[in-house]
Amino acid sequence: MTTPKALQIEPATGLLAGTRQVLSPHFDARPKGIAPELIVVHGISLPAGEFGGPWIDHLFTGGLRAEAHPSFRDTAGLRVSAHAVIRRDGAITQYVPFGMRAWHAGQSQYQGRTACNDFSIGIELEGTDTIPYTDAQYASLAALIEALLAAYPTLSAQRITGHSDIAPGRKTDPGPAFDWKRLDGELQ
Predict the structure, then answer these.
(1) Distance between the two ends of the chain, CA-based, in angstroms?
(2) What b/e string do you get for 126-160 counting C-beta neighbours within 10 Å, with b at 16 or more?
(3) Relative to the CA of 163, which of 4, 38, 40, 80 has its CA 20 to 30 Å away?
């Protein structure tokens, strides 16, 4: 896959232009006067350690069936979402408009502020804590972050963190396989 050099977010809708949209019902409005200030990087695979397939779409749209895989028993029925997912080939799917509140962080805290969903954007990378993320994912993640920084002046490249950092002890993603120095290099 060729990663676009520049991505654009449509200001009126909060949607990434030219990107696959699978809109989730699992979102709501941010609290009044709150804008995105934090980007949270996640890792996801469904079933665990497997890539591809429709399962992430099903999870974020409320259609994941417990009987589809033994590991889905505890996951099916969850009301969760992310703003976007970046697949192993770098393809981006958007689930929630960036100006809205996705339900990705759960119980969380960043620099003393709780309820990170209120003020963050959640980006899932298809992967695990232990399998290296792909070149295409780093390129797409950097392009998406650049588009977010351009669209939302309240965001900063200094306020990008992992799910594990805002929910320590509860979450481990994106895990040690994620190369933060590489992301920093991609953003420069």
Answers:
(1) 22
(2) bbbeeeebbebbbbbbbbbbbbbbebbeebeeebb
(3) 4
Task: State pLDDT tens for residues 16-47.
Answer: 999 999 999 999 999 999 999 999 999 999 99
Q: What is the pTM of this model?
A: 0.96
Cα–Cα distance for residue pair 160/57, rounded to 1 Å: 24
122 contacts 94 by C-beta, under 8 angstroms: no
Burial of 8: CB neighbours in 10 Å, binned 0-12, 13-18, 19+: middle
- Residue 126 known to be catalytic: no
Domains of the chain plus CATH, in order, are 9-186 (3.40.80.10)
